[in-house]
From TrEMBL:
<dbReference type="GO" id="GO:0005313">
    <property type="term" value="F:L-glutamate transmembrane transporter activity"/>
</dbReference>
<dbReference type="GO" id="GO:0015293">
    <property type="term" value="F:symporter activity"/>
</dbReference>
<feature type="transmembrane region" description="Helical">
    <location>
        <begin position="274"/>
        <end position="294"/>
    </location>
</feature>
<feature type="repeat" description="Solcar">
    <location>
        <begin position="173"/>
        <end position="264"/>
    </location>
</feature>
<dbReference type="InterPro" id="IPR023395">
    <property type="entry name" value="MCP_dom_sf"/>
</dbReference>
<comment type="function">
    <text>Responsible for the transport of glutamate from the cytosol into the mitochondrial matrix with the concomitant import of a proton (symport system).</text>
</comment>
<feature type="repeat" description="Solcar">
    <location>
        <begin position="75"/>
        <end position="165"/>
    </location>
</feature>
<keyword id="KW-1133">Transmembrane helix</keyword>
<dbReference type="InterPro" id="IPR018108">
    <property type="entry name" value="MCP_transmembrane"/>
</dbReference>
<protein>
    <recommendedName>
        <fullName>Mitochondrial glutamate carrier 2</fullName>
    </recommendedName>
</protein>
<dbReference type="InterPro" id="IPR051028">
    <property type="entry name" value="Mito_Solute_Carrier"/>
</dbReference>
<feature type="repeat" description="Solcar">
    <location>
        <begin position="274"/>
        <end position="363"/>
    </location>
</feature>
<dbReference type="GO" id="GO:0005743">
    <property type="term" value="C:mitochondrial inner membrane"/>
</dbReference>
<feature type="transmembrane region" description="Helical">
    <location>
        <begin position="244"/>
        <end position="262"/>
    </location>
</feature>
<dbReference type="Pfam" id="PF00153">
    <property type="entry name" value="Mito_carr"/>
</dbReference>
<keyword id="KW-0472">Membrane</keyword>
<keyword id="KW-0597">Phosphoprotein</keyword>
Amino acid sequence: MELWLEVLDSGAPIDAIYLDFRKAFDIVPHQRLLKKLEAVRSTSESDSAQLQQYLDNLVEWSQKWQLGFNESKDARVIPRVVNGSIAGIVGCVSVFPIDLVKTRLQNQQIGPNGERMYKSMLDCAIKTFRHEGFRGMYRGCAVNTLLITPEKAIKLVGNDTFRHYLRTESGRLTLPRETLAGAGAGFCQVVVTTPMELLKIQLQDAGRSASNPGAANIRASTIALQLLKEKGIMGLYRGVGATWLRDIMFSAIYFPLFAHLNSVGKRRKDNEGAVFYVSFISGCVSGSIASLSVNPFDVVKTRLQTIKKASGDRTYKGIVDCFIQVMKHEGWRAFFKGGACRMMVIAPLFGIAQTVYFLGVAESILGYPRQI
């Protein structure tokens, strides 16, 4: 490019051919492209080896950001997404019983005489285990483990993409821009989060109502098919507004807070990032603060997404109506029901994520060199 500019500055003519590789590699599905290349491959060993090398390079896509003369390190996208998925699945299985307790506490409404099914987080866990057993504590976990991969992919890639495009010309990322990048990632992930949470909540809360004994045996596929039949695809997006409020606010708080906490800690010898325990603690602290901050939205989302109510439970017309009724009948403390559970869920999730990234689990599985 520099040579071209020098030639043009000297007044000499120049011919240039513009090749839009984006159409060949980003728009066309890679599997179709690989099949076409295989179909036209020469039978000679030299051409075959050359094509194989090209194919190997094709599947090792990486992204690099350049601002002026400053370039970042190559960051492979696939290992990052795989690590996020592994961390999500491991974290989900590890803390799911606590998440189930959180859902039941948030859905529990106090009766006219102050009666309630669960007195505390521990009481809820004991009663659930006693009446529904070990499997009951993991009701709805399969839905989470199935959809956690696309959710993490959208969140991680979305945040990185927004952070890249929101940087200033000098390469800086101000706090408002960091917050906007996190909010953008939260906005995008809702496309997967809403149906995932909707199905999960029905299964988690099914055993709470004694008036509906058959509800505990319901399947996620049955609920999904019934919603699609009765209300179409939008049936799976019940409570999407409340989910947007929660996830946008959570990501807007978490990502900038984690980045700043991680930046002030002890650095590695190569000065390319924080040491492991700093990233681990930053992830746990940021996740806890962000989760507690958005707990009121999570309570509203849980109640709006619960399809089958227990006997005596109130119904809500929307987000505003839910806020008003909860405040009127249960007080402001109700907005923080399950808050401790949510912090106990979120903090380990992000701590596990940092551990998976540090160990380079995806790199080991896929055969990529580990990037410290």
